[in-house]
């Protein structure tokens, strides 16, 4: 079996971002800092930064992230969007609202142009792009 899991890079706010995503998506969040792995080369100033965070939910969402350590170039996420899709309109609308809070909505969550549900696009307060699709139960 092979899986494809998003791995997000942050600059000194991975803990805040991943904790936020846990509050939106639920699930269990494991966080390890550079300090937790003394054999991993890192600057002393990076000790409390997130070396690896792993969020996994009961419905199968897996999202990982880390802080970019000193000396490694950082580029904000670009050209990729995370896509949430399902039929539970109440849950997905709540997740949309939470992700949109403090972010930028580029396409409001509304009737999908292709019919059969709702669709919206936004960039959250951490610069991560999200697509949310709510499939209607009768499609």
Structural overview:
The chain has 139 residues and is of the alpha/beta class. It has 2 domains: 7-67, 2,3-Dihydroxybiphenyl 1,2-Dioxygenase, domain 1, CATH 3.10.180; 81-135, Roll (2,3-Dihydroxybiphenyl 1,2-Dioxygenase, domain 1), CATH 3.10.180. The chain has 2 helices and 8 strands, in the order E-H-E-E-E-E-H-E-E-E. It has helices spanning 14-25, 89-100; strands at residues 7-10, 28-33, 50-56, 62-67, 81-86, 104-111, 117-123, 129-135. The strands form 2 sheets. The protein has a 4-stranded mixed sheet, with helices on one face. A 4-stranded mixed sheet has the order 5-8-7-6, with helices on one face. Strand 3 and strand 4 (62-67) form a beta hairpin. The longest helix is centred in the first third of the chain and has 12 residues, at 14-25. The chain is elongated, with a radius of gyration of 17 Å. It starts with 6 loop residues before the first strand and ends with a strand.
Question: What would the keywords be for this entry?
Answer:
elongated, 2,3-Dihydroxybiphenyl 1,2-Dioxygenase, domain 1, 37% strand, VOC family protein, four-stranded mixed β-sheet, PhnB-like, 2 helices, Glyas_Bleomycin-R_OHBP_Dase, alpha/beta, 139 residues
């Amino acid at each position: 079996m092979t899986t494809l899991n998003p791995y997000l890079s942050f600059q000194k706010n991975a803990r805040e971002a991943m904790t936020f995503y846990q509050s939106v998506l639920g699930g269990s969040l494991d966080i390890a800092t550079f300090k937790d792995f003394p054999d991993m080369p890192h600057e002393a100033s990076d000790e409390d930064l997130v070396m690896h965070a792993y969020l996994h939910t009961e419905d199968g969402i897996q999202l990982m992230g880390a802080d970019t350590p000193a000396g490694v170039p950082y580029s904000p996420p670009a050209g990729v969007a995370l896509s949430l899709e399902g039929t539970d309109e109440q849950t997905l609308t709540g997740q949309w609202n939470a992700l949109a809070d403090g972010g930028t909505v580029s396409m409001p969550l509304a009737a999908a142009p292709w019919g059969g549900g709702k669709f919206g696009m936004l960039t959250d307060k951490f610069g991560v792009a999200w697509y949310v699709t709510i499939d209607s139960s009768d499609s």
